């Protein structure tokens, strides 16, 4: 029978106690981590969210209490009172925060028992992710998981405190919105009182925060829940959280400067790391040319090199045709190592799975040069590639040709793969930068038209507006900026269009008819008629930020109750079927059901 806590409420969390508390009477509450019964001594490691403290029951303990201590099992819930005392010198555990002390218990209540859990509650647990997620409430008891969630809390608190001091006002925006499909798929919510009509869950608060600028609130922030129905990966979830910001009467420099201040404070207060500011600002074109990515990891080298001019006139038709068709030939030079043919073939397959059509290679060693190009290039041409690559004995030159986009993607991915495999990436370094001057538009082969690289409300560079008016969308730059950390896009934003005429021009460039624009965004265009200030902002991916600051490699670790790859919840069983009566109330009929 479970006992009650009345009169034995916590005075301290476990790891609040130290040698300075010796002689103090305390009460701790928590879960049994493990017990050790030595006959005349029983030791119990008690765990709460802060960590572990050792309880001791010995020859001075009342017999009934000692018998109760002997009955304890893992994950029993306890309230224990006693006096803090020093451990004997030989029993000090320097690996524990409370390793110098123990609590000599003189009163204890078992608040609840526990069945044997499906896995041991310990950071060294070796079980499948599926089992951990099914019993997520147990997984969250593990010290590392508890630390992730508590650091998330600290990061959110720092965001509130910093932006409050900078004059930002937190405003909650709706979760039931109008569907404005442009980008990822919406999650739709049927309306019972408007049969056949649907709300959409917000992919971001973008339109509402712009309307708040129209409303005169000047500086807005929100810890905002967002939803996107898209394919998942390690750093993506169907529901995620943003630190969302918007400011009026600003330019891009203002937005970037105030956010550098946030990052500087955040890393100092949470991790005690001094982040140097201002951050490097790198144009999108430079990021792609040097690193093959618009979110480059600049902690290591292995930069891409363009050998297109050489390739244009070389004897290998595949190279020259790629350049003459408007594409490129680029390479990376992997540093000294012993690259077997099997390893090189593996890198070639890697390139193919990352958008490249294949990979040519040159391997240098003290014994000479091996190359896949030996039959199609002269020795002098191969020597010129080696010179352009600045390669030396032991290096491997990896070459990809084709359209620039796939070449960047393939070599950018290979660069990061080799950087990790060869141990070139310093794991304890945080390297921030801004990527700026993004293209305003990108061409979608699937849709056969230009689409917005960010979103339709991004302000183009003023000098490029005439190009949009002339219908030349191929080289228009956006007044947009992404903050990048260690190869991840940490957040992004832009200065927004605040003029209704320019916004309508943007919609037209994207292929929207006047009717389409009014149907989707009429409320925004209407608002722009009434004195909209210039404004801009950005949003951080909170989950990704926490993942990087905790050192985790999976975004699920820092979300209390995440979804798995197919967007389902293994713990609750969501999504699930609903009964026919609920569907009828919503005027919905299912044409197809997933097999159970």
Which descriptors would you attach to this protein?
single chain, about 600 residues, alpha+beta, OB fold (Dihydrolipoamide Acetyltransferase, E2P), BirA Bifunctional Protein, domain 2, Gyrase A, domain 2, 8-stranded mixed sheet, 5-stranded mixed beta barrel, 22 strands
Radius of gyration: 30 Å
Lateral strand order in the biggest sheet: 6-9-10-22-21-20-17-11
Helix and strand content put the structural class at alpha+beta
Q: Terminal Cα separation, in Å?
A: 39 Å
> What's the story with the biggest beta sheet?
8 strands, mixed
Unreliable runs, pLDDT <50, ≥5 residues?
Answer: none
Percent range of helical residues: 25-40%
Number of strands: 22
């Amino acid at each position: 029978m479970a006992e009650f806590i009345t009169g034995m409420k916590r005075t301290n969390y476990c790891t609040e106690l130290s040698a300075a508390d010796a002689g103090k009477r305390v009460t701790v509450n928590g879960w049994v981590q493990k017990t050790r019964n030595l006959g005349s001594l029983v030791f119990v490691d008690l765990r709460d969210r802060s960590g572990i403290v050792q309880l001791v029951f010995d020859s001075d303990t009342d017999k009934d209490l000692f018998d109760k201590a002997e009955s304890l099992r893992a994950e029993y819930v306890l309230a224990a009172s006693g006096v803090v005392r020093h451990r004997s010198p030989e029993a000090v555990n320097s690996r524990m925060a409370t390793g110098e002390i123990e609590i000599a218990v003189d009163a204890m209540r078992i608040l609840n028992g526990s069945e044997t859990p499906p896995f041991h509650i310990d950071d060294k647990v070796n079980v499948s992710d599926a089992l951990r997620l099914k019993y997520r409430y147990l997984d969250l008891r593990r010290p590392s998981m508890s630390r992730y969630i508590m650091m998330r809390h600290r990061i959110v608190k720092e965001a509130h405190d910093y932006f409050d001091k900078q004059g930002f006002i937190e405003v909650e925006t709706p979760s039931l919105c109008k569907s404005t499909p442009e980008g990822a798929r919406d999650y739709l919510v049927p309306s019972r009182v408007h049969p056949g009509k649907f709300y959409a869950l917000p992919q971001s608060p973008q339109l509402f925060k712009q309307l708040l600028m129209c409303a005169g609130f000047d500086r807005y922030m929100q810890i905002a829940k967002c939803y996107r129905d898209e394919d998942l990966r390690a750093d993506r979830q169907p529901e995620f959280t943003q630190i969302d910001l918007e400011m009026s009467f600003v330019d891009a420099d203002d937005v970037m400067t105030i956010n550098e201040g946030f990052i500087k404070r955040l890393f100092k207060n949470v991790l005690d790391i001094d982040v140097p500011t201002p951050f490097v600002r790198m144009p999108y074109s430079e990021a792609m040319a040097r690193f093959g990515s618009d979110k480059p990891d600049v902690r290591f080298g292995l930069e891409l090199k363009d050998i297109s001019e050489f390739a244009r006139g070389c004897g290998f038709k595949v190279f020259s045709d790629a350049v003459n068709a408007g594409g490129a030939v680029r390479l990376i030079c992997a540093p000294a190592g012993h690259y077997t043919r099997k390893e090189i073939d593996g890198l070639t397959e890697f390139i193919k799975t990352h958008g490249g059509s294949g990979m040519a290679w040159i391997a240098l060693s003290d014994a000479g040069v091996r190359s896949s190009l030996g039959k199609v290039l002269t020795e002098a041409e191969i020597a010129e590639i080696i010179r352009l690559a600045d390669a030396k004995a032991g290096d491997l030159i990896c070459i990809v040709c084709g359209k620039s986009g796939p070449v960047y993607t393939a070599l950018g991915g290979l660069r990061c793969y080799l950087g990790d495999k060869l141990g070139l990436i310093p794991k304890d370094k945080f390297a921030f930068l801004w990527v700026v001057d993004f293209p305003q538009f990108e061409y979608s082969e699937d849709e056969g038209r230009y689409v917005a690289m960010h979103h339709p409300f991004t302000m183009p560079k003023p000098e490029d507006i005439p190009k949009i008016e002339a219908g030349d969308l191929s080289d228009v730059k956006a007044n947009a900026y992404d903050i990048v950390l260690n190869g991840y896009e940490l957040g992004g934003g832009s200065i927004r269009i605040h003029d209704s005429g320019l916004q309508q021009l943007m919609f037209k460039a994207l292929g929207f008819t006047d009717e389409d624009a009014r149907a989707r965004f009429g409320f925004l265009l209407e608002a722009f008629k009434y004195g909209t200030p210039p404004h801009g902002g950005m949003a951080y991916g909170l989950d990704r930020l926490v993942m990087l600051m905790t050192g985790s490699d999976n975004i699920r670790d820092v979300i209390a109750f995440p979804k798995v790859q197919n967007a389902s919840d293994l713990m609750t069983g969501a999504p699930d079927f609903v009964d026919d009566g609920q569907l009828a109330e919503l005027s919905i009929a299912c044409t197809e059901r997933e097999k159970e």
